[in-house]
Amino acid sequence: MAKNQKAEAVVEEPKVFAVVRTAGKQYRVSAGTKISIDQIQDKNAGDTVTFSDVLMAGMTGGADLKILASDAKPLGVTVTGRIVAQKRDKKVIIFKKRLKGGYTKKQGHRQDKSEIVIESVSL
Questions:
Q1: Which domain holds residue 101?
Q2: Which of 35, 59, 86, 119 has its CA 20 to 30 A from that of 6?
Q3: What is 52-71 written as a DSSP string?
Q4: pLDDT per residue over 24-80, tens digit each?
Q5: Quick one: CA dihedral 16, 28, 49, 77, positive or negative?
């Protein structure tokens, strides 16, 4: 950038986001976000999923940030997504060894995952 040019301010369009809880983990999602969660049983690729356990929701954009948060009562916010793929994660190697005992154990584990694209967050 030359010395005489001025930097233009980037104005963000308001974007709705939510924090959902599934399988004991929390994910911050918005429309178009792709997440990989523990496998959802009885669902195939192409099926829709609704997350009702929403911990927090809000809107970002510009200078203001609106947040809806709830500890005890449900927010009434629904997050819908579509399952893109049912796959397995990378292999994790578990290696145990006891010194001077001649004991070694090598084990591998691959976790089943569901890859989901969030379609909408409705406030």
A1: 15-122
A2: 59
A3: --EEEEEEE-TT--EEEE-S
A4: 999 999 999 999 999 998 999 999 999 988 888 888 765 556 677 766 667 788 899
A5: negative
